[in-house]
Every structure is written in C-alpha cells, then in structure tokens.
Amino acid sequence: MTVDLHKWTFADRESLMALCNAVDRTFLSDRLPYPYTEADADWWLGMVAGNDGNCYRSFLRSSSSGRASRKASGISPRVL
Fold first, then answer.
1. Is residue 41's pLDDT more than 90?
2. Phi/psi at 48 (5° precision)
3. Within a 13 Å sphere around the CA of 38, how many CA atoms are in the beta-carbon half?
4. How high is the pLDDT of residue 64?
5. What are phi and psi of 43, to 5 degrees?
6. In DSSP terms, which residues pair with 71 in a beta bridge?
7. How many angstroms separate the CA atoms of 34 and 44, rounded?
C-alpha cells in the first residue's frame, strides 16, 4: 500500500463535502457538521489556505488491487 499526500485546494470542495457527508459518525464528536455544506467546505479550505496550506489530504493505494481511496487527513496546522 502506498500513501500519497497532497495539499488541499479549493478544487477539492466537492470531494471534501462528499467525504464528510459519507463518514461513519459513530465515534465522531458533533464538531463535524452534518450535513457538510459548501459553506463548511469553504471555511475549512479557507483556513487551510490561511495557514500556508499545512493540511494534507491522502490517497491510500492498495498494492494488490491498485484501487485508490481518498481519505481526509487528521493533520491540522496547529499540530505540525
């Protein structure tokens, strides 16, 4: 399996919304809005841009299947 890290950009808005609306919320706090709207995505992506892009999204690829899965990274600018 390989993990590719990429910086978030405003071009990721639709993917971010889809990911956040599809996530299993069983063990999440209420801090992740539902439904996750364009305004929520714009806020997050604006915060990332305002922090020099120091938040990343990752793509996990299984070496056996070659399939890719997009995952949101839990890394925030405050942690880095």
1. yes
2. -60, -50
3. 1
4. 52
5. -60, -50
6. 58
7. 14
Give the pLDDT band of residue 70 (cuts 50, 70, 90). Answer: very low
- Rounded Cα distance between 3 and 68, Å, is 9
Asked if the model's pLDDT at residue 6 lies above 90, the reply is no
Contact 3, 56 (CB under 8 A): no
- Strands 2-7 vs 56-61: parallel, antiparallel or unpaired: antiparallel
pLDDT for residue 66 is more than 60: no
Residue 22 has pLDDT above 50, yes or no: yes
SS3 content of the chain, % helix, strand, coil (to 5): 30, 20, 45
Q: Where along the chain do its domains lie?
A: 2-72
Neighbours of 55 (CB within 10 A): 21
- pLDDT given at position 18: 92
Token readout for 25 is 């919320």
